[in-house]
Design a protein that fits this description.
Length: 268
Amino acid sequence: MYRFLLSRQWVIITLVALLLIPTMIRLGIWQMHRYDERTARNQLVSDALTADPVPVEKLTSPGHTVSTGQRYRSVTAVGRFDTEREVVVRRRVNGDEEVGFLVLTPFLLTDGRVLLVNRGWIPADAPTQTTFPKVPAPPAGQVTVTGRLMPDETTAASGIKNLQGLPDRQVMLINSEQEARRLGEPVLGGYIAQTAPEPKNGTPELVGRPGNEDAALNYAYAIQWWLFSAGVPIGWVVLVRRETRDRREAAASEKTAETAETDQPAVV
């Protein structure tokens, strides 16, 4: 009765089932790795955001690359804003997905070095974004700013092309090395996203607090894949039993038909 398992159709079905089981198990393991990675990143972000602010000079210096563990750390700096050499970062969106600019202002520290401060988002004055927009002024004189430390933006990490020939005082990326060349002064590695003092009238619009990645979704996907892998042999058995039942019923029907023909009286 089970010889049908050696047929071409059933050999293919069985091979596909045998391939699906380890593939789905592997996909579940991959999703668990993604879950662990996202959970670890969420913990790093949480730890950085809840840590007490420290002077920015303790975490970065000219030429320094901001590490994953330093990202989002709350830092403070004392100095003054240099609005004369302020630039805007093109094609950035706010929380409502409106396209505008980020305001990037050099912040002159008391020791003569420069810190890049992302003061927030402003809307574009015109769709073409070819002119320098009206930027609200920051506090004048010496001030203490607080912000989240961020690594330099690069094309490789962000996917944003660093276009050349842009309108005056406009850039595509926030990059300390690029700004150091433009300013001709030592610039601390990375930049900060300003969180305090808050701007007057809410503009520029401060960059929002980073959110957690949805690690639970990867956990659910892993369980789903493993349930699928367990369902494959169950489904195979169900198909085999159904095929066996159908063949037995067909065989029984044929036998009944043959018996009926045999029992019919001969016609004289």
